[in-house]
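Q: Transposase, please. Structure only.
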Amino acid sequence: MTPSRVEVITAVERRRRWPQAEKERLVALSLEPGTSASQIARVDAG
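A: Structure for Transposase:
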């Protein structure tokens, strides 16, 4: 399988700080039946 997108990170970045509401939204998504972490990441990125 060939990746459709490659991201090159050139700068040193610190860890992201997520607002509490965003954390709660992501956790709620993860608790839905049949949901995978990669699905949540794709929805969150777009």
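A: Brief note, in case it's useful. Residues 19 and 25 are 10 Å apart (CA to CA).
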